[in-house]
Amino acid sequence: MIEISYDRNMLEQVERKLGRMKSEAPKALKNALNQTAKQARKDLADEAQKTYTVKTGRFNKAMKIKNATPARLEATIKATGRVMGLKDYKVSPATMRTGANRPDVVKAKVLKASGMKPLEMGGLKAFVTKFSSGHVAVAQRRGAARLPIKSFSANSIPVMLGNEKRVYGIVKPHIKDNLKQNVNAQVRKILGG
User: Fold this and answer.
1) Which site in 53, 149, 170, 177 is 20 to 30 Å from 28, CA atoms measured?
2) Which residues contact 145 (CB under 8 A, 6 or more apart)?
């Protein structure tokens, strides 16, 4: 969960800039916070898309914004989601193949910066399968027997977005800059400039 809020200093500055119209300060901050939250959600999705091999739409759907109000001057971005199957990332081949069409080894990658890694552990190769429920996954046998099999999974969207080194840490400074710019724009709008 990412919180975008103001400090007392910012409220005092806005009230000082607005002069006689200082009663409009909470409204200006509310609008600036909400606009900044929308920009932050887009920036987080874009940065995550640059880093991971998951489609941008998945990131946008996972993030919900709780808007600020004049009484509660804090906007919140909350990311939700379960651990994603490896099939949601880049996998080659992407479809289930059997017989002569079956590849020697299935490869996958989670990070765009990394290469495709062969999924083979302990002499057991991974494969793309379709379960009776219709769910398609990358799986691997647990032993020499036909069953049981285990599905591969990777990070959830909240984990990806919260990654200080790859996503949130890069976007965080921009959020503060955007908030300052949006506050100044709201003050100018109220003052009629």
Assistant:
1) 170
2) none
